[in-house]
Batch of 2 targets.
Target 1
Amino acid sequence: MNQLIECIPNFSEGKDQSILDALSDIVTSHKGVALLDVKPDVSHNRTVFTFVGEPQAVADTAFLLCEKATELIDLRRHRGEHPRMGATDVIPFVPVKNVSIEECVALSKVVAKRIWEELAIPVFLYEASASSSNRVNLAAIRKGQFEGMPEKLKQEEWQPDFGKPQIHPSAGVVAVGARAPLVAFNINLNTDDLAIANAIAKKIRGSSGGYTYIKAIGVKLEERGIVQVSMNMVNTDKNPLYQAMEAVRFEARRYGVSVVGSEIIGLTPAKALYESAAYYLQLEDFDPELQVLENRVGELGE
Amino acid sequence: MNQLIECIPNFSEGKDQSILDALSDIVTSHKGVALLDVKPDVSHNRTVFTFVGEPQAVADTAFLLCEKATELIDLRRHRGEHPRMGATDVIPFVPVKNVSIEECVALSKVVAKRIWEELAIPVFLYEASASSSNRVNLAAIRKGQFEGMPEKLKQEEWQPDFGKPQIHPSAGVVAVGARAPLVAFNINLNTDDLAIANAIAKKIRGSSGGYTYIKAIGVKLEERGIVQVSMNMVNTDKNPLYQAMEAVRFEARRYGVSVVGSEIIGLTPAKALYESAAYYLQLEDFDPELQVLENRVGELGE
C-alpha cells in the first residue's frame, strides 16, 4: 500500500519568475513527488505550491524548497498585502492516502528539526503538530509578522519549537505542521446582495456558532452579478460538503434566495465527494475503500 | 499512465470448492492482476469472478481461466437454475482507467480468437464487441442453452464469431465481449407491497420505456419487511445513479411511498459517485480528472 502526503508550502515571493522557476525545478526534478500546482499572487507577493508524493520524498522536497527559498528570498526587502513571517512562510502536510494525521505530525517534526539544524531558521509547529493550544492557529503565530518577530520571540510563550529565540536575518521564521485536507467550496446565490451572502456565511461558520470546521465569508462575483458564500472546509470528515450545501440552502430560503450552483476551487480528496454522494443517494453501509474499484488497485501485484 | 481493465468471468460451477480454488489460484498467481471477488451461487451452480489489472495481464488471465475451466468443468453433467451455455459461460471486459471501450473490444477479440484456436471452443462476441445487433444481448445468444446449442449453431444467423459451428463437447460455447461498467444499485422503499416496487421498476427501466441504460425489477426484502427496486445501471455515464434515485423518488410519491435507503452491491467506478456528488452539490465545471487529488497521482515520478 503506497502512502501519499500532500504538501502546500507558501513562499514570500509572487513576482520574480526566476525564483518561482528555481523552486518548481526542485519539485519536478525530485523522484517520488508530483508538482500539482503553482499559484503566484502578485499583490500578495506570495506563491502557493502544491505537490504530492511518498512521505520521505515529500519531506525531503519540502526541506529542499525551504533551503532554496532561504537562498533566494530576502524578507527584509519584501512588501506584499498578505501577512508573512518567513521567506518560506508555512509548510503544511496533509494526509491523502493510507496515511494518518499522526504520521503527518511526525513527518512535520522531522522536517522542522532539519530546517533549524541545517538552515538555522527557528520553527513553530502549528495545527495538528502544535505544542500548545495557542499555536494551533497560524494567524496567532504569525501575528506581528517578520518585522515584529524579534520582539515576539523574547516572550516566554513564543519560544520556537525548534531553534533559538532569534530570527534568521533574511528568512525570518517558519511554521510547519500537519492538518486535515482542506476543500475550497463556494456556493453561488441568485442575488447580488452581498449582505445576504455575509449573513449566511455567519450562520454556517464555526467562528460565529455554525459548523466547527467551516470557515465562510460572503463574496461578490461582479462579472456574473451574483454573490457567493465562499468557504474553506477544513475537515470534510467532520463537516462534509453536503452539510454546507444544505445549510446554505435553508438559510438562503429566509431571504427568498436559492442556490444556483457551486464550485470546488483546486483539489479535493475523493473521500469528500464519496461522502456527499452517499448522503444524497441515501446509501446504506457503503464502504469506498472496498467498493470503489480504483481503491482496489493497490492490491495489484507487480 | 497505467491502464486498468476489469474482467468478470462467469463459470458454470458453484459448489465444488476445489474447482473454485484452482480458478482463484490462476488469478492470484498472475502478475499484474488483482482478484477482487469470488461469488459462488449454489442454487445457480455458478460463480462470478472479479479481477482487475493491466490490459495484457487481464487478457492472459482470462484465457488461462477459460483453459482451466475447460479442463475441470463438464457441462454435460451440470445442473443449476441459471441459464448457461459454456463451462466458461461469459467473459466481459470493462474499461476502468485510461482505457476506452474500443480498446476493450479489441482485447476481447484477441482473447476470443485464442480461445477458439487453442481450446477449440466456439466464441460469440457480445455487447460492445458484437458483430451484429441481435448479438448485443447475452440472453439472445444464450437462448437454448448448452443442450440446444448444437441445433442453434446450424442456423445461418447463429454462426459463431470465432470457430466452427460445433460446440466443444464438454465446455459448450463462450460469450466474450466488452461492456461499460455496471453498477448494482438497489433503492429501498417504506412499503412491503411488491406490486409497487414492480410498478416503479417498470416505469424506470429501458425495456419498458424508461431510462435506456437502467435494468430494474421489484424485489422483496423479507427480513426487513420492505421492498426494493433492484437495478443494474449498465451505463452510468449515460444514466447516472442520481437519475435512478430521483426517478424512483418521484414515481414512489404517487403511492405515498418514500425512499428509505439504498445500496451499491459490490463495486462501482469512482466516476459514478463523482457524477452524483456533482449533481446534488450543483458543482459547476467540476473536472474529477484534474480536481480529485488521487487522480493526480499518475503524475508521480518513479
Target 2
Amino acid sequence: MAGNSFGKAFKITTFGESHGKAIGVIIDGCPPNVEVDLEFIQQELDKRKPGQSKITTQRKESDTCSILSGIFEGKTTGTPIMLLIPNEDQRSKDYSHIQDKYRPSHADYTYQVKYGIRDYRGGGRSSARETAARVAAGALAKLFLKQYNIEIFSHVSAVGKIQAPNLSSNNIKELLAIREENIVRCADPATAKEMENFIGVIKKEGDTVGGKIATVIQNVPVGLGEPVFDKLHADLGKAMLSINAVHGFEYGSGFEGSSMRGSEHNDIFINPEHSNKALKTLTNFSGGIQGGISNGMDINFNVAFKPVATIMRAQNTIDQEGNDVEITGKGRHDPCVVPRAVIIVEAMAALVIADHLLRNKAYQ
Amino acid sequence: MAGNSFGKAFKITTFGESHGKAIGVIIDGCPPNVEVDLEFIQQELDKRKPGQSKITTQRKESDTCSILSGIFEGKTTGTPIMLLIPNEDQRSKDYSHIQDKYRPSHADYTYQVKYGIRDYRGGGRSSARETAARVAAGALAKLFLKQYNIEIFSHVSAVGKIQAPNLSSNNIKELLAIREENIVRCADPATAKEMENFIGVIKKEGDTVGGKIATVIQNVPVGLGEPVFDKLHADLGKAMLSINAVHGFEYGSGFEGSSMRGSEHNDIFINPEHSNKALKTLTNFSGGIQGGISNGMDINFNVAFKPVATIMRAQNTIDQEGNDVEITGKGRHDPCVVPRAVIIVEAMAALVIADHLLRNKAYQ
Amino acid sequence: MAGNSFGKAFKITTFGESHGKAIGVIIDGCPPNVEVDLEFIQQELDKRKPGQSKITTQRKESDTCSILSGIFEGKTTGTPIMLLIPNEDQRSKDYSHIQDKYRPSHADYTYQVKYGIRDYRGGGRSSARETAARVAAGALAKLFLKQYNIEIFSHVSAVGKIQAPNLSSNNIKELLAIREENIVRCADPATAKEMENFIGVIKKEGDTVGGKIATVIQNVPVGLGEPVFDKLHADLGKAMLSINAVHGFEYGSGFEGSSMRGSEHNDIFINPEHSNKALKTLTNFSGGIQGGISNGMDINFNVAFKPVATIMRAQNTIDQEGNDVEITGKGRHDPCVVPRAVIIVEAMAALVIADHLLRNKAYQ
Amino acid sequence: MAGNSFGKAFKITTFGESHGKAIGVIIDGCPPNVEVDLEFIQQELDKRKPGQSKITTQRKESDTCSILSGIFEGKTTGTPIMLLIPNEDQRSKDYSHIQDKYRPSHADYTYQVKYGIRDYRGGGRSSARETAARVAAGALAKLFLKQYNIEIFSHVSAVGKIQAPNLSSNNIKELLAIREENIVRCADPATAKEMENFIGVIKKEGDTVGGKIATVIQNVPVGLGEPVFDKLHADLGKAMLSINAVHGFEYGSGFEGSSMRGSEHNDIFINPEHSNKALKTLTNFSGGIQGGISNGMDINFNVAFKPVATIMRAQNTIDQEGNDVEITGKGRHDPCVVPRAVIIVEAMAALVIADHLLRNKAYQ
C-alpha cells in the first residue's frame, strides 16, 4: 500500500531510483508567500551530494535541483511544489554483478520477495540517493521555518567509538560555521580531525563504520505536537528511523534516562520575570517536549547509524537460485555515512516541525 | 489537528481521560472471521491494570472491557470494533491541589498553552490510563496475528542500572511463563528479584526510577514494511515513542551498532536446504528488518522509559499565575512503570505488525 | 481497509450495528473551548430518531446521547469527544426470516460476499441507524460553526413527483420554524400537506417512495476548499453520497446547468461599496463555490434519495444456497426516508464545513 | 492543508500549473509486475490533449509523457511511478489582460483571497490542464485493471439540450469504436452529428455550452467499496466532482429514482444456474452498487458539466482594487468541454476502481 508520503499538513511525496532518470519530491501544503531561495536549496543539496570530499563516495552528481511548479515570482503560491533532481552519473554496469545476488544486510532479498521484481541497479529505490529529495524538501521547510525564527542544527557526534564532547556553545550560527570547516561535519574541531583520520583508515581497509548524529532545534513555539499517537518526538523518531541505516533514536535524557531517578530527572520550572514569557526549566532532560508537546526549551535528540553494508571485501552470499556465491563491493560508496547524513537529519527534522506547526494552527 | 488514530489498514482511534466516564478504542479495518476471545482480551488488560501488585499504583480499576460493536456470534465481521472500559475508581479530589499548578516534567504546562484549557484531574488525556485502550486493541491484533502464528514477547530488561542478561531461550511460550512468575515481568528470575527489591527501596524513598523493555517478534513473514517512510522499524519506533515516558528506541544492533564496522555487522545469508524456505542469516544485527522490510528473522528492539515524574517528595514549581509554589505528589502512582508497560509495548507491536500485514496484501 | 472515518482536520469515526449494544462516534480534532450544549445535540438527534411521527418507522429509540470524553466543565478540551447512543428497542426476531435470504436492493448479498459473514439483524452496519452517530457529531460541528455564524438549512424539496416551489425566504431561522411545523420537513406548508398525504397513501399500500432534499449554507467565509481533489463541493458530494439511499448530488446550477450557455451561466461580480467586503455576484449558478473554493455567496446543493428498499409486500428473491424464496418486509420501516434524512444532510454538511474551516487555517 | 492527493491504496499526487514548466503525477501503491504500455498512455493523453479537432482549444500541446521512475524492464516495480508532461505552448501574454481582474465564474477571486497570491497565467493550478496528469495516471490504472478484465467506457450523452438515446449495445469495444469515429465522442452517430453542428454554432457566437457524460464499468468483482463513508459510489462521486466544471453526479437510478416507488425500483435477483456464479439482478436501478459495495452488475453513472466560463464576449467584472472593468476572453478555449472530458471521467473512474480493488484485498 502506498507509503512514499510523509507529513499530514506539510506533506511530501518522493519518487525515484538510484539509476533511473531522476529523483524528486512533491511538497503539498506549504503555505503561500514563502520566499524561495533556490540558491539555499542548492547549498543544502551540495552538503549531501556525493563526491564532495575524499571521505565520501566518488559518484559525480551535481544534484542540480529545478522547481517545476508551485512558485510564482519567487514565492510559494500554496499549490504543490515539485522539485526535480536528474540522475547524471549512473554507472549501472557497476551493478551487473549483483543482478541476481543478494548483498548481505542490503534490501535486495526483501525487495525481491515483497515485489517479485526489483531494479537492482544501485539499489533502486532502497538507495540512499532517495534522500536527496528529502534534503530538497527539507530546505524548503527551513525557508518556511525562518518566518518563525526556528533553527535546526545537527552534527556528527560519533564515528565508531570516537565520541565528540558536548557542544561548547548553544549559538547555532556559530556551531554551523565550525561544523562546515571540516569534512566530517563535527562541531568539535579536534574530534573531527580524529574522526577524519579514522575514516581514512577504514576506507583503506575496504571497510565501513557506523556513527551518531546529535541535533538541537531552537525557538520552537510551545504547543507543537499532538497528544497520544502523533507526539512531536514520536514523529521525529519515525522521521529519523525512516532514513537509511538508522538503527536508533533517543531524545532528551534518552537511553541514559532509563537509569535515572525521578527526583534527579524532573525538570524544575524557573519563574519567568515577565508573565508573558514562555516558562523555562532548570534542566532539560525532557528534551524540549513534555506530554508529546513542545515546551519552548531546546529540542534535542540523537540518531544512531549502522555501518554501510557495502564493503570492498569479499563476502559469501547467496543468489536468487539459492547457490553459494562470493561478492565484492564495486561501485562508489561511502566508508561512513554520517558526514553526509547530517543534512538529511536536519531536513527530516525541519519537515516534522513544519508539519506540526501547521497542524497546530487548527487549534488557534 | 486530529491525531488520536494509529495505523492505516488496521487502524485504531482511542478516546478518554483518566477521570472521565470511560476510555476506549475503535478498531477499524480488522478482517472478518477472526475468533474473538474476550477472556484473552481481559487477561491482557489485567496485566496492565493498576493495583495488580505491591509495586504498582494502588488505584483500583477492574478495567473490565465490553465490546459494543463489530462482533457477531463470536467472530469479527469486518466492521468497526468498539471496546469500552469504564473508569471506576477516580479520586479526582487527589488532584485538586494541582488544579492550577504545573507539575514538573508533566504535560500540565504544554496542554494549558496548546489548548487554553485542560482537564487537570489525573492528567486528563495525558494520563497513562489511555494505554489501557491500546492494550485492548493490541489484544485483538494478537488474536488476528495468531492466524499467522506470529508471536510477540516483551520483558523488562533493565530497572535503573540493573540490567538483565540476554534471554536464555528463544521459545516465547517458555519465556512468557518465566516472566509471569514475577511481578517485575523480567524473564530472568534472579534479576527480577533484584529489580523488585530495588523498586521497593525506591518506593519507600518516595522516588521513582526508569527502565528498559526488550522485545522479540517471531514468525513474521518476509515482506512486511513499505520502503522509504513507512519502513517497518520506523512505524515500530513511532508506536513505541508514542507510549508515555518513552525516551528512546533502537532495533537490531541499535546504538551499539553505530560503533561497529561493516565487516562485522553484515548479516551473512545461510544457504537454505530447500529453495522455497525463507533465507536465514548467521547473525541478526539487522533485527529482522532490511531496507525497512521484514526478512523473516526474529524482529527485536529495545525501548527506554524515563522515571515517572510524579514523586512523593516536595518539589518547587510554578502555578498558572506565575507564582512560586511547592508541590508534593498525591494520588496513587507507580514507582517504576516498566512492569506494567511490558504489555503496552507488546500491544503496540501487535498493532504495527497487523497493520503492515494488511498493507502488504495490496501487492499480492 | 479501514473506511469508517470522515474528515481530515475535524475527523469522525463511527461504529455500531442496528441491533448491537450501541452506536456512537469519536470526534477527533474539534478545537478546544467550544461550549457544548448537550440539549441541542439531543434535539438534533430527536429530529432523526425513529417513531417521531406517523410517517416514520415505529421503532422506539430514545436515541439518548451521552458524552464519555473530551469535555471539561461544559467545554471541549481539544481531545477526542466520544458520543455514545445505546440501542434500546431492537427486535432482532423481526429479522430471523431474512437470516439467509438476500433482500432485493439491500446490502445483504454484497456484505456476505465481501466479508463471508454478516450481522443480518436489522441490516447490521448497513442500517441507516448508523446515521444517528453522524447527527450527534454534526450537532457538535454546528456548535463549533456557531462561532463563525455559519448556518445550515435543509428541507424536503420533493417526495416522489411532488416538488416544492423555490424557497420564499433566505432567512434560515424563519425557514427552520416553518419546516418544523410539519412532519415532512418541507419549508412550504402547502406542499408539505400534499407530501404528507401522499406518504400516507404509499404507506397504506405497503410501498415506499423516494425524494429530494435541498440545502443552503450561509456565512461561509471566502477561501474554504482545497483546489484539485479536495474541492469543497467534491467533499460535500462525497459526504452526501455516503448517506444511505442517496443516488445523486448536484450543487449550484447542477444538472440543469449542463444545458445552459456560458453567457447566461456566468455569475457577474457586483462592485462592493466598501472594498473590505467580500465580493457578491448577481446570480449564483456557481452555488457559492468557484474553483472548488467558497466565494462567500450562499452554498446550495440538492440530494436525491431512492425509495426505501424494504416494502411490506411479497417479493421474489434468493437465499444463500441459491434457492428461490419469497420475502415480505417485516420490522418497522419508513415509507419515505427524506423527512428524517433532512437532519442527516445538515449534519454531514456541518462536518464538511468544519473540516475545511480547520484545514484552511494552515494557510493563515 | 495538503489536498493534491487522491486514493488511499492506489494513490496519486498531482502538481503543476497551466503555464509553469510542466505538470505531472506520482502514482504510489501501484502493484508490481504490471506491464506498462507507454504507447497506450500516450493514446489516452492524445484523446484529452488540446488542438485535437476544430471544436477544441487550439493550444498546441503534444502532451508527451515520460516516465521518470517506478518502471524496470517494462514493468512496474511497486515503487512510485512518476509521469511528467512538460508544458510547451504557453502564451502567457494572452493572460496579461487578466493579471489583476477577476474573471466571472473562474477561480481568480477565490484563489486570491485564499492564498493572497496567484499565478494568473492560464488559470495557474485551477486550469483544466491539471487533468492531463489524471489522464496519465488513469491510463496506468487501466493497465492494472486489465489484469482483472475490468473495462470502463464513457461518452458524451448530452450537449446543451441535445440528449443522446440510450446506448444501443453493451459491448464496450464496439461502443468505443463508434465513439472514436466522431469528434464529439458520443456513441450515437446521429446525435453526434447534431452535437457537432451545435457546438460549431456556439463557437461562432463566442459562447460556450455545458453537457453530460455517461459511464459504464464492466466486470467489477463483487465486494469493492467500504461501507459507511468510503462507499464505492461516494468515492466515484467525489472523483467526478473534483473534475473542473462538474456540477452534478448521479448513479444508478439517480435523480429520477427519487420519484420512483420501492416496488418498481427494487432490483430482483435472478437465480444463477451455477451456484458459484455471481448473482445478477433483473433490473439495475442500483447501478451495480448496493450498500456502497459493488454487486457484480454493470456500474453506471452520469456527470453534469457546466458551460466553460471563458467566453469570447465582453463581460463586466471587477479588478483587485475594486474598480469596474470590462473583460473579453482571449487565449484559446473550448466552446464545450465534454468531448475532451470523456477521457478524464474514465481516468478518474479507473483510479477509484483500482484503489478499492487494492483496499478490498485487506479482507481476503
